[in-house]
Amino acid sequence: MSPENDNVAIKSEEFNVLMKKAVKELGISTELIASLHSVKLIKHDSRPWSARGGIIISGVIFLALILIPTIVYTSMLYQLHVTQWLLDIYLGLTGDTNTAHESCLVPITEEMQDPFRPPVNCYECANVTGVHRVRNLSHEDFIEKYAFTMQPVVIEDGQDGWTAGNKFSFDFFRQLYGVGSEALEKVTNACQFFPYRTEFSNLGEMLNMTKERAEGKEKPWYVGWSNCDGKAANTLRKHYKFPYFLPLSLDHSKTDWVFMGLPGYGAHMHIDAVGALSWQAQVRGIKKWMLESPPECSGICMSSMEIIVNPGDIIVLDTNKWFHATLIIGNETSIVIGSEYY
Ligand SMILES: O=C(O)CCC(=O)C(=O)O
Fold it and tell me: More exposed terminus of the chain, fewer Cβ within 10 Å: N or C?
C-alpha cells in the first residue's frame, strides 16, 4: 500500500470510531450523520488519489498515448489527414485551385503506406500472364483493356512525332531549371523530389553536380521529380505530345514527372498510394521494370514479371496495385517523362 493509502485507511478508521461513539453515546442515527454537509466533505476528501483524479488522468493518458496517435496515423494513411483539410482551407482562402502539386504537410512514408494499403482485388490480376506490347491503340481499346485494369501494357508507337528523344538531356534540364530561375524556385518549393539513394536534397543540388558525375564517371545517381511549374511545363510540352491513346474524357494530372539516372541504378521495390494511374514515356535509355503481385494475391496472380521498356515506348501500369522496381540497363542515361490520369 502507498503512504497515501495508509493515511486514508488510518483516517477512515478514526472516523468510524467517532461515528460509532456518536450513535452509541448521543443516540444520533447513522443516516443523520451521513447527511451532514461537513461529513460529506470529509468522506469526499478521504477518497484515495486514484478515485479522485485517477479517472480524469487515465482519460488524458489514454487520449495522449492511444487515441490521438491512432486517429492521426489512420487519417494519414488514408490521405484524408487533418493536414489535407488544413491545406484545403488554405487553398480555399488563397483561391489556388490546382491541388495536384501540393504536398502534404506531414510526409507519408512508404513504411507507413505498405502495411496499411487497401488490399488488391486479385481477380484483377488473375488473368494477367505477361505484359502486352501494342501499336495503334484506340481510345476504346485502351479504356476497355488497360486504362483501369491490372494488365500492364507497352505502347510501342507511343512517342511517334515527339522531339523529346532528341532534345531531353541532362544539360537540357540544367538549362530549364537554371540557377536562380523561377522554375527552379517553384519546383524546389512546391513540387516533389525523389533522391532515391543519392545525397541530393533537391533538384537544384542534383543539376549542379559535376559534368563528370553527370556522365557516369563519378558517383552514381538516379532521381525523380515532379514539375509543377507552368513555364517549364510549356517548354517540356514543346517536345512531347499528350499520348494519342489517352482519351481526353479522362481526368489528367497537370503535373509531369521526370525520372533520370545512370545505367545500373533505378527505383527500389515499392508500391504507390497515389490513387491515380500513370503512364511513363521512355524518352532515352532502356529501363527494366520488375513487377510483383501483392502478397494477398499469392497463388492467384503471377508472382513476378519483367518488362523492358525501350526508347520510344510508353508504359502504362497501375503502380498502386503492382509492387514495382526499376533498373536502367544498356549504356545510356535514362530519361523518362510521364504523368497520371484518374
Ligand atoms: O521510373 C522509375 O524508375 C520509378 C517510377 C516509380 O516508382 C513510380 O512511378 O512509382
Answer: N
